[in-house]
Amino acid sequence: MSGHSKWATIHRKKGLIDAARGKVFQKLAKEIFVAAKQGTPDPDQNAALRLVVDKAKAQNMPKDNIQKAIDKAKGTSEGENYESIRYEGYGHGGVAFMVDCLTDNKNRTASFVRSAFTKAGGNLGTDGSVSYMFERRGSIVIPGEYDEDEMMMTSLDAGALDFESGEDTYEITTDQESFTKVKEALENAGVKEFLECELTYIPNMEITLDEEGAEKVHNLADTLEDLDDVQNVYYNLKEN
Predict the structure, then answer these.
(1) Is 114 among the domain residues?
(2) Which site in 32, 86, 123, 210 is 20 to 30 Å from 93, CA atoms measured?
(3) Is residue 235 part of a domain?
(4) What is the pLDDT of residues 58-95, one digit of tens each?
């Protein structure tokens, strides 16, 4: 099965993260705050919070930053509230986009997202117009320093859907239900570092574009990801 989050794409995103790490940590802090505020602030007792904390750790977010976001949720009874909104639309070449946001001002967010699509020659669609093209999946990427056969068997025995070996990484794809079990199995097998560890969306159909077209799609994705209210951007461009 072909996953959306191939290491080339991940590596490209890592470059963006290095260039704007503060913004990435700010978005992760918002996710942590929301997860902690909606449930208990203890990651061991709050599956949604634990998932976001694991995602933050994979992005090398400092422990102090993570704890500050949790503590902020503990001490906030009113005032700061965020709403989850998803926008769906099309970019260059008919590439489908899903844009997940956390916002305290829906009108502001809608305006910024719409403007990004319009300037890129794309357009927003209605709810459900592209979401059927994506599936909820777990994406785990670990360094290739571990024994390949052991990591493959550990992942598949724990319920992983797919295991792929790159030049210096292993990428494991799971369904939503087995994600945590696979992660814990890898930890028990000695994995100490996760390059990516999150529930994401991967396309069940992909679009191939030439280099110029792919660049236009990447530019729209980068513009959207740079918006403060945008948490995640998914699209079905086939990466070369």
Answers:
(1) no
(2) 86
(3) no
(4) 888 999 999 999 988 887 656 578 889 999 999 999 99
